[in-house]
């Protein structure tokens, strides 16, 4: 069965950096576009970044472009999100997911950016 396990979150000051990881299993990882989502209280999950199956195409939500970098390692079935110059509005729970979506969602990893 599909399993997604996010890690790497934490508390960081504004301007700091974090690197999130997502370990996956239970599906043909290298055949899937993958996305990172962010959820904040009272809002739906939003896509912040995506990467193609071969890792040669990336997309970013406008507010994170130039600060976040998504990457993947198909040999380890993992994706990553390098987050630099973090801002308080980046605070939230971050999830990875396949595209198209394959349930279930992982537990997410909490990121808190203090001002």
Instruction: Give the spatial strand order of the biggest sheet.
Output: 2-10-9-4-5-6
Report the total helices: 0
Which range best describes the helical content: under 10%, 10-25%, 25-40%, 40-55%, 55-70% or over 70%?
under 10%
Bin the strand percentage: over 45%
Kindly, what is the distance between the CA atoms of the first and last residues, rounded to a whole number of angstroms?
Answer: 40 Å
Q: Which structural class should the secondary elements be placed in? A: mainly beta
Counted beta strands: 10
Low-confidence stretches: none
Walk me through the structure:
The chain is mainly β and 115 residues long. 0% of the residues lie in helices and 51% in strands. It has no helices and ten strands. It has strands spanning 3-7, 10-13, 18-25, 33-39, 46-51, 58-60, 68-73, 78-83, 92-99, 109-114. A six-stranded mixed beta sheet has the order 2-10-9-4-5-6, with no helix packed on it. A four-stranded antiparallel beta sheet has the order 1-3-8-7, with no helix packed on it. Strand 7 (68-73) and strand 8 (78-83) form a beta hairpin. The protein is globular. The relative contact order is 0.33.
């Amino acid at each position: 069965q599909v399993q997604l396990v996010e890690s790497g979150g934490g508390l960081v000051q504004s301007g700091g950096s974090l690197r999130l990881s997502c370990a996956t299993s239970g599906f043909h990882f290298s055949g899937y576009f993958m996305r990172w989502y962010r959820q904040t209280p009272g809002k739906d999950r939003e896509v912040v970044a995506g990467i193609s199956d071969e890792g040669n195409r990336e997309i970013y939500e406008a507010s994170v472009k130039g600060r976040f970098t998504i990457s993947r390692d198909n040999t380890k079935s993992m994706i990553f999100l390098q987050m630099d110059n973090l801002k308080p509005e980046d605070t939230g729970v971050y999830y990875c997911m396949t595209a198209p979506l394959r349930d279930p969602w992982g537990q997410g990893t909490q990121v808190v950016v203090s001002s």
